[in-house]
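Posting this for the archive.
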Amino acid sequence: MAPVRVISSGKRYQTAPIIWMSFFLAGGTSPVALAKVVDKTLAIVNGEAILLSEFERTANPVVDQFQRVTPVASQSPERLKELKKRLLEQMVDDKLLSQEAKKRKIKVGKGELEDGIKKVRERFQNEDEFQSELRKEGLTAAQFDQRIQDQLAVMKLIDQEIKSKVPTPTEADAKALFAKLQPLLNAKSLSPPPDPTQASKTEEDSLRVLAHRIRQEFGERVRARHILLRLDPKASLVDRTAVKRRIEDLKKRLDRGEDFAELAQRYSEDPGSRERGGDLGSFGRGDMVPPFEAIAFKLAVGQVSQPVETEFGYHIIKIEEKKAARKTAFTDLQDPLREYLFQEHARDRFETWMASLRKSATLKINDVE
């Protein structure tokens, strides 16, 4: 994810059905291999330990991303500790789910396992890259296969316990939701929604989050590239001047006709877009921080901005495509609204079910630094 996007550290990573499947298909390899040496125990779940070593293998990539995409001023020790706490809670839930799948003796067929392994291995360009990842995770090939089998078993468990028991929303359900959304969709302006990664406390909160998503999708959109040179908001005048001079030099090179994508690949400090030549994809209003967004929506297609300063540093923006706003009709939204209702009901059922698993489990969870 590009660092200019407006995001937060977010709620602990729920293992709701769609989240779990997205994690698996994206290639997540749950690093729960047994540690080769005894290290600190962070939690005990029904007699099974979660070790510091495996927690770090899971948490470090998430923490690294948080530090890359979150403005420095927002990276307080308290916020980082809360993120780690939620990641540990998620690992506890994952362990409970795995134990429950084994308790119910859920089977994964040979064909299902082979297909699952294939999907994960397809992420890697070659065998050497795959083997390198296994070594990094401390897994043998057999342990990797077992992890995939365990994940597939949990996915089947969730399908049985959640997906199969949630009624399919009807067209009437979708129309009722659409009617509730109309005042928000037709309003000239909409107050910022609560953080969508946090649990909404009221129906109004949920409706505002959904309305913002729809307005972003159907509103004016642009596709842009950018070159980012990072700058700490607390940087000294000397450092600030040096970074500004570098971004101005890059703008001069662009003005002389050098290729934007090539310069982005060579010089941009946004790991989320650099390899794609700075391509940020399509975004709507509210997706980016205000200074970036204000310039992006003013520029014409093909136009390149002057250097733009945000809390992440200095950017140069190029607009590749613009799309005008579209009217929101029920016919366009019926299927997404029904899917939204299904996911909301599934999430509610999943949380209730997970609460019952936690209540009946023997848990000991230590503080994480």
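The domain at 17-165+347-365 is CATH 1.10.4030.10 (Triger factor/SurA peptide-binding fold). The CA atoms of residues 235 and 241 lie 10 Å apart.
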